[in-house]
Amino acid sequence: MKTYHDIATDGGSDVAGQVASQSHRLTGRLADVRRIVAVMSGKGGVGKSTVSVNLAASLAVSGARVGLVDGDINGPSLGRMAGVHGAPVLRSGSAVLPVESSEGVRVMSMDLFLDDESLPVVWDAPDQVGGAAWRGLREAGALRELIADTQWGELDVLLIDLPPGSDRLPTLAGVVPRLDGALVVTLPSAVSLGVVGRSVRMVQDHLDVPPLGLIENMAAHVCPSCGASDELFPAGKVDVLARTLGLRVLARIPFDPLLGRAADEGRSYPHDHPDRPAAEAFNKLANELQAILDLP
Amino acid sequence: MKFLCVECDEAMALVETRGPDRGSMTVVFACPGCGRQTAMLTNTSETQVVRSLGVKIGGRTMDAEPMEGIRAGLAGRSAEAGSGDSKCPFTGMVNEAFEQRAITWSEAARSRVERIPSYARSMVVRGVEEFAREEGAAEVTEAVLDRARGRMGM
What we know:
The complex is a heterodimer of chains A (296) and B (154). By secondary structure, chain A is of the alpha/beta class. Chain A has 10 helices and 11 strands. Chain A is 38% helix and 19% strand. The termini of chain A are far apart. Chain B folds into 3 domains: 1-61, N-terminal domain of TfIIb (Single Sheet), CATH 2.20.25; 63-102, no CATH class; 104-152, Orthogonal Bundle (Helicase, Ruva Protein, domain 3), CATH 1.10.8. Chain B is built from 6 helices and 7 strands. In chain B, α2 packs antiparallel against α3 and α5 packs across α6. The termini of chain B are far apart. Chains A and B meet through α1, β3, β4, β5 and α4 of A and α1, α2, α3, β6 and α5 of B.
């Protein structure tokens, strides 16, 4: 009797072919994108989206063509943070056009499809409670569509801001095989460093995606009047983790209440506050990334 | 998943699909040798998994629409055949928003609007699309753009 492997097709649906077609579509859409970088952290609330949106802005201001994908399907925020929430999504042939921020960053997010920010993202299903078997597939599919169905055009770098969790980068790597690396955001707290360290180890041990370096967020508070710097957490712990993991600390972003205010208002922090220490730190991070990835 | 006619030792071929009906799909296969038919009946979880993969049982006859999974999944046309209603007012709104925005632009019109500084472009695009809808135009052409400019005083 024949076995599964003796039969060439699935009888007519060609599910494997359909999945391959999805992959080809994504590959074609990213053909003019030079570099693709994930912004990740195992820990939630460390400022991944803040880093992503401000790094993207700093890169764009320096002349790079930048795309930004909000990888948080259930809690999208980049539309608001980049100041494009509510902007129209234009269809162009077999794709939609990304929405451009004031710096020209091309943004795509679930945020752009949801007019009412107060309601949750709910997938159509007979039963929401029993979603363990399919919810992850839905989210991965949505992420694939946000990337593959957006007409990015020519980009120097596409940043993909991931939600927290050590499982997110493997999911993204399954969707986008040609990831050039991952930026890892952490707070200098022991709680954050422990979780982030584990998630980086998982990447190093199991994925073919190089961690490009650590970004220390909320590294200190710099007094805007006198310039004195106060540590928010004991100093030096991020350096210890970086040495342990064999990574560099690419930037230390000081705490600045204006960062949060700019995000809430959808205004560009680097544009509005170019002389603040955090803006300088984002510029430094942009320079580091440009050097690492050989970007213009 | 593949089906084998044990008697003929032949791979069975897909004949038709029905549903989803209350979350279940019926997929009929037949043996090309003896003609014997068998039906695969999916439970709701299996149906959801297939939908979540973004594939169509029975194969695709045309390319997927942009953001098809997001639109269909969130807009959630009811799985019950023929109902056509969204189960959730929120998810219905998503589709409505996308459809409303899915107005096309000619290349020439897009080139012109892309010359507008990016900080003002979204506002202009919104205004022009609103004008196009009022005119009943499905596409923003240069002519539509010129008329919109006249009304918007640009």
